[in-house]
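Supplementary Methods. Inverse-folding protocol.

Structures were first reduced to a discrete structure-token string of length 93. This string, shown here, constituted the complete conditioning input.
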């Protein structure tokens, strides 16, 4: 991963980061008061998309990533363990 693949976003509306993996998939982890989480106390909001800019959601039941047609879907209130799993599994997709 190079510096262009990792972007920290810290301002009034965004606190978090985004990273793009060698497979072209990108994950965004946000934890501000303006996102679907508890401001980073115990959870974060996560969004993911593939190298073709298709938005992805993680299906916990099948432990797999699925493409979604609504490009505004995010994974809300993700625990630190969830975030770690999402980062790892997306990097391996």
């Amino acid at each position: 991963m190079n510096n262009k693949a990792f972007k920290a976003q810290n301002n009034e509306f965004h606190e978090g980061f985004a990273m793009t993996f060698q497979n072209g998939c990108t994950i965004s982890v946000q934890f501000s008061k303006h996102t679907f989480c508890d401001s980073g106390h115990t959870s974060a909001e996560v969004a993911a998309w593939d190298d073709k800019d298709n938005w992805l959601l993680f299906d916990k039941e099948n432990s797999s990533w699925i493409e979604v047609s609504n490009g505004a879907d995010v994974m809300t209130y993700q625990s630190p363990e969830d975030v770690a799993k999402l980062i790892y599994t997306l990097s391996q997709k």
